[in-house]
TrEMBL record:
Its cofactor is Mn(2+). One of its GO terms (molecular function) is protein serine/threonine kinase activity. The gene is LOC113052355. This is Extracellular serine/threonine protein kinase FAM20C. ATP binds at Q254, K270, E291, A374, A375, F376, L377, E448, D463. It comes from Carassius auratus (Goldfish). Residues 99-113 have a biased composition (Basic and acidic residues).
Length: 574
């Protein structure tokens, strides 16, 4: 009995000691922060405001991590262990030592890149106006891009949209809530104090955040209107909105991150894996090639210049891996892969099929990394999408070939197969083929459409990261659908001819359009030149088709009464 009482006393003492340790651990960071604040204010307010000196932070991370792991769940950070990986934003050599320094550094780098790009253009005999920054170039009076969008081919109008033609139908009795539970409010872009919307008050489409307004504009014929001001605002949001959470995207061969913003919008982040000068190694198969962030950005701009408008908005962003990924993620598997390299750079690799290992880690400089952010399409629960297998899908095998690669009459079979035997689907595939060839993208295995619109709608050009890999090689096999079918929309045919003219040269338009991105220049000059060369090859294939089969058999007139009878049966089997 006495032993039992002693045992209970011992258990109680152990419990009290454990509670005391937890209290001390909870108070220690606050005391450190207070001590650091007092010391920094005593020193005149300059320098680092953290508890450790910048030079000691890499060592302190290594020393403190085991101690924190002793009081936390193994492999998962508690609220204090998130502070253990150093935030290099306070390092003297960091390009984010302060908010003002970040702006100055980015502006200086952007201007330097623009000057280098202009210098290269002038050496090639191209006339350029003096440019001091990408924004000034975009609004200049002699803008080729502005002149292009003033051309009659870029002013065709859609028919009146019925309820069946809009993805979402708004009425005064319906409210869109970005979050089903919790605090039901979001902050609009701009002045946070003046533009805060509460669902309890009056609401209209103008009060919605830009990502939601983008979703509302989707219709049967286009992902977004040709001259939509919302797209410009959404691109700015992708660059400026605070990132509140990060998680790895399931599926896929390479690492992608889902980033959520303060206004409850979401975007897909593809980090930088290659420099702009690197080409895909010649011995790489197309299915093992890297996915490039600058290819995603460039694909959006090319799609808009071609007037397809089938790629969701994409913007480049410089992300702080410490503050904007590691510190906000609740993905255990992602957090465990962060480490500090021998060069004192923050790195991580995540989990995926290819290139997710320490040897292929993504490292910042010291914790800054470039990436592309693609705006999310509406949630599948609200707007279902159907995934279609591309008829000209590659075998994705090292030795086997697909049927279309060995059968020259393969297109005749496709024309007899729904949904390619009617409507505009086959012609949309030809648009996608031309789009991929201009980028050099061999990785088009599937495409998607919105289920609501059935088969009479556009196809969405998703996942373009394997484009712009080789500027020195033109992969003619990408054009096989066009050479086999010899079909094209008249609107596409005329725009391609327009972009081959000197005053609307595709490379110049892409150069100007890409200068609007924060990470400009996005493409090096050889990639821009390659697009002009490939455009000439596309026109040569179409010219051969016209000579062989006749203009009326090759070019489908979609401009007279455009979209007015979208539900009619076209001559798909011709």
């Amino acid at each position: 009995m006495i032993l039992f009482r002693k045992f209970r006393v011992l258990i109680l003492m152990v419990f009290l000691v454990a509670c005391t340790m937890h209290i001390v651990i909870d108070l220690l960071p606050k005391l450190e922060k207070r001590a650091a604040g007092s010391s920094s204010s005593a020193g005149g307010g300059g320098g680092c405001s953290c508890a450790h000196t910048p030079g000691e932070e890499p060592r302190s991370w290594a020393k403190q991590r085991p101690r924190a792991a002793a009081v936390a769940e193994p492999g998962w950070p508690n609220k204090h262990s998130l502070r253990l990986l150093q935030d290099f934003s306070n390092e003297p050599n960091s390009n984010l030592t302060s908010h003002s320094r970040e702006k100055v550094t980015e502006r200086a780098e952007s201007e330097k890149r623009v000057r280098q790009l202009q210098l290269g253009s002038e050496k090639r005999g191209l006339m350029r106006d003096p440019v001091r920054g990408p924004k000034q170039r975009a609004v200049h009076g002699s803008s080729r891009l502005k002149a292009l969008y003033e051309h009659p081919l870029y002013k065709t109008e859609l028919p009146h949209l019925s309820e069946d033609d809009s993805l979402f139908n708004l009425n005064s009795d319906v409210r869109f809530y970005p979050k089903a539970a919790g605090q039901q409010e979001w902050h609009n872009e701009g002045n946070m104090e003046e533009e805060e919307y509460s669902p309890a008050g009056e609401a209209n489409a103008e009060s919605y955040p830009n990502w939601l307004r983008f979703h509302i504009e989707i219709n049967r014929y286009e992902l977004y209107p040709r001259h939509s001001h919302i797209i410009g605002a959404l691109l700015k949001d992708l660059v400026s909105q605070n990132i509140t959470s990060v998680a790895m995207k399931s599926g896929g061969t390479q690492l992608k991150l889902i980033m959520s913003f303060q206004n409850y919008g979401q975007a897909l982040f593809k980090p930088m894996k290659q420099t702009r000068e690197q080409e895909t190694p010649p011995d790489f198969f197309y299915f093992s090639d890297f996915e490039r962030h600058n290819a995603e950005i460039s694909a959006f701009h090319l799609d808009r210049i071609l007037d397809f408008r089938r790629v969701p908005p994409v913007a480049g962003r410089l992300v702080n891996m410490t503050r904007e990924i590691r510190d906000v993620t609740r993905d255990k598997k992602l957090w465990r892969t962060f480490f500090v390299s021998p060069a004192n750079n923050i790195c991580f690799y995540g989990e995926c099929s290819y290139y997710c290992s320490t040897e292929h880690a993504l490292c910042g400089k010291p914790d800054q990394i470039e990436g592309s952010l693609a705006a999310f399409l509406p949630d599948m629960a609200l707007a279902k999408r159907k995934t279609w297998r591309n008829p000209w899908r590659r075998s994705y095998h090292k030795r086997k070939k697909a049927e279309w690669e060995v059968d020259p009459d393969y297109c005749d079979k496709v024309k007899k197969t729904p949904p390619y035997d009617r409507g505009t689907r086959l012609l949309d595939i030809m648009d996608m083929t031309i789009f991929d060839f201009l980028m050099g993208n061999m990785d088009r295995h599937h495409y998607e459409t919105f289920e609501k619109f059935g088969n009479e709608t556009f196809i969405i050009h998703l996942d373009n990261g394997r484009g712009f890999g080789k500027h020195s090689h033109d992969e003619m096999s990408i054009l096989v659908p066009l050479t086999q079918c010899c079909r094209v929309k008249r609107s596409t045919y005329l725009r391609l001819q327009l972009l081959a003219k000197e005053e609307f040269k595709l490379s110049s338009l892409m150069e100007e359009s890409l200068l609007q991105d924060q990470l400009a220049p996005i493409l090096i000059w050889p990639h821009l030149e390659a697009m002009d060369r490939r455009l000439r090859l596309v026109l040569k294939v179409l010219a051969d088709c016209v000579e062989k089969e006749g203009f009326l058999s090759v070019v489908e007139n979609d401009l007279e009464g455009q979209h007015s009878s979208h539900h009619h049966q076209a001559h798909g089997g011709r």
